[in-house]
Amino acid sequence: MLDINFIRENSKKVKEACENKNVKIDVGRVLALDKGKRELITEMETLKAEQNKISRGGKENNVLITQAKEIKEKIKSMEPELEKIEIELKDLLLQLPNIPFDDVPVGKDDSGNVVLRHSGHKPIFLFSKPKDYMELGEALDLIDTKRAGKVAGSRFGYIKGQLALLEFALINLVMDTVKGEGFIPVIPPVMLKDEMARGTGYFEAGDRNEAYFLPDDNMYLVGTSEQSLVAMHADEILNEKDLPLRYAGFSTCFRREAGSYGKDTKGILRVHQFDKLEMVIFSKPEDSKKEHQLLLSIEEKLMKALGLPYQVINICTGDLGRPAAAKYDIECWLPSENKYRETHSTSNCTDFQARRLNIRYRDKSGKVSFVHILNGTAFAIGRILIMIMENYQQKDGSIKVPKALQRYCGFKVIKN
User: Catalytic annotation on 270?
Assistant: First the structure.
């Protein structure tokens, strides 16, 4: 959420951010409600001061006692109006998006995203046509979506045998990579209270439809471990000496994939349940841009370790999402589709989530300020397995294992 003082002083910038992020919010209404709230509070405080003055000097004066009672009733009659204004104002404030940085490209949708660089070489196959990952997975008995469909329905899959061992290898690769940067390994809860889920700032963007909700418990299943990692420090004041505070979380994640009917419905590219390694950083405001570059560099380091060809994308305003002030995606080459597909993202959410969850830090002088919060994908396991399978496939249908993973999994090739 944005600071109301910032909105008052930068209403034009806020309106521009809403327009560039395709968010339809009446900023004028926000300002009008804020003004009405302040005027009402001022009036109530004036009446309370008058009431107190009368009460002190008129304990034995029936006329003054009556006046004090009338003022008290007037104040009481104003309280419902104040509550009504506060509810509407809070609702609108929660819908306002974060302000994009000035160097974020302006665009209406993903067509406005900018390719920053390419890395690696697309594989050259010395056979007629590369297989897609499902052909490879079924032939090698690595992926079983038919039985998963029988057990759980569509968009689920069993990951089996050596491919399951590759998942554990990927986890170990990530943890060994990030520990040198001071990341603390975490296995977080996969359920969130309603107020914690809202605190991350995604639900107003429609992500509520993506989430699995447990009505009897008023709990949500996480769509990414970012949500429970960020909420971990809700209502806390961190010490400046502990910042930046860096976490690497591993969890199973759950998404409905609402609105994606007919899109990637087969296989394991877009599923309801998947495992993911996520990085989250709490930093001082002046350090967040540097921390964002660190997250991106770690993502690229991991992709280079696997030898996968990829491109880095600077996400434009219209594709940025509500919480982010800046965002980068990494897209990996997928041979069967002859195009790049997203595997990573990393966002600088500045103090947007921290304000919603009341996460602050105290500096050396004793001043308390909101932290900046950043997130970045280490590996979305299913998608990385897909990219390894397709880019490392061999003519005989086997799959080479990237060298960086061989010491963790104990084999160099996946074959029958």
Answer: yes
